[in-house]
Write a structure and sequence with these properties.
Helices cover 2% and strands 34% of the residues. The chain is mainly beta. InterPro entries: Gal_mutarotase_sf_dom, Glycosyl_Hydrolase_31.
C-alpha cells in the first residue's frame, strides 16, 4: 500500500515499511523497517543527530487506481485487466524518488538517470526485467538474537559500468575504487569505518 503526505511517501506490505522524505537540499532520507508503524515522527535520528531544515517542500505525485479506472459495481465482474498504476514520485531539489505499487524504489538525478537502482531478484513482479526465482530481495532483514533489532542487507546495482565508488573510511587495503567490494563496518585498531560513499557520478550515500 502506498501512502503519500505533503512531505513523504510510504510503502507498507507484509510488515515491511519503506518511507522516503526530504533531508536538506538535494538530499533524500530513506527509512526501511519491519515496524509497520514507522513514521518520520517515530523514527530515530541514528546518524542524523542534527536537525536539517527543508526550505522548499517536495513535489509529490501519487496516482491512485480509482483516479484512472472505474471499478465495477458490487456483484458484477469486469474481465478487462486493470491498468498498472504508475510509480509515485517525490521530487526534492535535483533528486526524484520513484516508488512503485510493489515497493520497488529508484532514485533519479535531474537528468532522469537512475543513481543507482535497488537490486531485486524476486518474483514479486513477474514482468520486471529483474524477475528471478532466486528470491533475493533488495532489502533483507535478519533478526538479531535476544533483541528487538535487525541486521539489514541493502542491495544496490549500478547501471553504469564505468561508475566508481569511493569512501567508507580508512582500511588496510590497496583498493581505491570500492565498487563490488565487501567492507566490514566496524571500528578496529587498524581501520576506521565511515559509512559514507561517494560516486564518480556525483551522488553520495550515507
Amino acid at each position: 500500500m502506498l501512502i503519500s503526505t505533503d512531505r513523504s511517501l510510504t510503502f507498507t506490505a507484509d510488515g515491511h515499511t519503506l518511507l522516503v522524505e526530504p533531508h536538506g537540499p538535494h538530499a533524500l532520507r530513506i527509512h526501511a523497517s519491519v515496524n509497520p508503524l514507522l513514521s518520520p515522527s517515530e523514527s530515530k535520528p541514528w546518524a542524523f543527530t542534527e536537525e536539517v531544515a527543508v526550505d522548499t517542500p517536495p513535489v509529490i505525485n501519487c496516482t491512485k487506481l480509482d483516479d484512472q479506472h472505474t471499478l465495477p459495481p458490487p456483484g458484477q465482474v469486469n474481465l478487462e485487466p486493470l491498468p498498472l498504476c504508475p510509480p509515485a514520485t517525490l521530487t526534492h531539489g535535483n533528486l526524484t524518488a520513484a516508488l512503485s505499487p510493489l515497493g520497488y524504489l529508484s532514485v533519479h538525478n535531474a537528468e532522469g538517470r537512475p543513481i543507482p537502482i535497488e537490486k531485486h531478484r524476486t518474483r514479486i513482479d513477474p514482468m520486471a526485467p529483474s524477475a528471478s526465482a532466486l528470491e533475493i530481495p533488495a532489502r533483507d532483514f535478519t533478526p538479531i538474537t535476544a533483541s528487538n533489532y535487525y541486521n539489514l542487507s541493502y542491495r544496490l546495482e549500478s547501471l553504469d559500468p564505468e561508475e566508481k565508488i569511493y569512501g567508507g573510511g580508512q582500511y588496510q587495503q590497496p583498493i581505491l575504487n570500492l565498487k563490488g567490494s565487501e567492507l566490514e563496518l566496524a571500528q578496529r585498531n587498524s581501520q576506521a569505518s565511515v559509512p559514507f560513499f561517494v560516486s564518480s557520478l556525483g551522488y553520495g550515500i550515507l
